[in-house]
Amino acid sequence: MAVRIEKNGAVWTVIHSRPEARNAMDTASARALYEAFLAFDADETASVAVFWGEGGAFCAGFDLKQVSELDETHVEQVLAFPEEGQVPGPMGPSRLDLSKPVIAAIEGPAVAGGMELAAWCDMRVMAETAFMGVFCRRWGVPLIDGGTVRLPRLVGEGRAMDLILSGRKVEAEEALRIGLCEYVVPEGQARTKAEALAQEIARFPQGCMRADRASARGQAGLSEREALRQEWQGGKGMVAADGAAGAARFAGGRGRGGDFEEI
After folding, report:
1. pLDDT (0 to 100) of residue 262
2. How far is CA 11 from the centre of its chain?
3. Confidence class of residue 256 from pLDDT cuts 50, 70 and 90?
4. How far apart are CA 22 and CA 126, in angstroms?
5. What is the band of 86 on the pLDDT scale with cuts at 50, 70, 90?
6. Is residue 87 left, alpha or beta, with left meaning phi > 0 and alpha meaning psi from -120 to 50?
């Protein structure tokens, strides 16, 4: 199996394993990843996912060898975008709108469609030797898994245009500096760090966290007032559901002085 899931309590690590192709995506892997993340989102015991490529590469994009072998009918199937519902993208989960967070653990290349998958995630942990880039610029293959949408939102339009138009390599330290990743760690430690972050996030009251996440992700294109209303609508129920219980724990002596350990 090129895709498998390893579970540690509320944290699921979704693993893509085609190391012989630097985890380049094929149609079978794309479908399997799509289904794995749907299963994660639907499972009430799961809170946070880590997305990791086995064998020292996050994802080298779509497998161009497979693309070269597809006939016109199969190309249309890969590129299809139905108007309604959750649908797989060519890279698998890139068009999913999940209710729970996903953290990318990036070793080696996350390029072309692999960069788009990294941008799809909520957070990115990069090994210091990892890198990104729109490497498909060389071959006339466009970004159709969210790259032109998500990159400007992450790093701003000007920087996104630089990356999209030039296709140049972006090493981990630059990615951290421009907001393309959130953490840089020693080589081989990306998964460990991502899973530690996931366990921390999984400790928190999940309803409140998911409401805040949904508001932050859903505000693009809204006016400030519309975004504030959306925030209020998503969060008002959580005040009673999670907030009252949390306030009671604080009143009982937990979490004083900004402590995040005993909550």
Report:
1. 73
2. 14
3. low
4. 16
5. confident
6. beta
Q: What is the CATH number of domain 206-258?
A: 1.10.287
Is the CB of residue 151 less than 8 Å from the CB of residue 119?
yes
- Cα separation, 162 vs 178, whole angstroms: 12
Work out the end-to-end distance of the chain between its first and last CA atoms, rounded to an integer number of angstroms: 40
**Is residue 16 within 8 Å of 29, Cβ to Cβ?**
yes
Residues in the chain: 263
Neighbours of 141 (CB within 10 A): 17
- Cβ(190)–Cβ(105) under 8 Å? yes
Q: Give the separation between CA 125 and CA 106, rounded to whole angstroms.
A: 6
Please report, for the chain, the start and end positions of each structural domain, with discontinuous segments joined by +: 3-202, 206-258
Provide the Cα torsion 61, 14, 205, 215; round to 10°.
Answer: 20
Q: Where does the chain have alpha helices with state H?
A: 27-42, 64-69, 72-79, 113-120, 147-155, 157-166, 172-178, 190-202, 206-218, 224-238, 244-251
3-202 folds as 2-enoyl-CoA Hydratase; Chain A, domain 1 (3.90.226)
The predicted model gives 35-59 an average pLDDT of: 98
Q: How far apart are CA 108 and CA 224, in angstroms?
A: 39
- Dihedrals phi, psi of 214, to nearest 5 degrees: -60, -40
Exposure string for 3-38, b = 16+ CB within 10 A, e = fewer: bebeeeebbbbbbbebeebbbbbbbebbebbbebbe
Pairing of strands 109-111, 48-53: unpaired
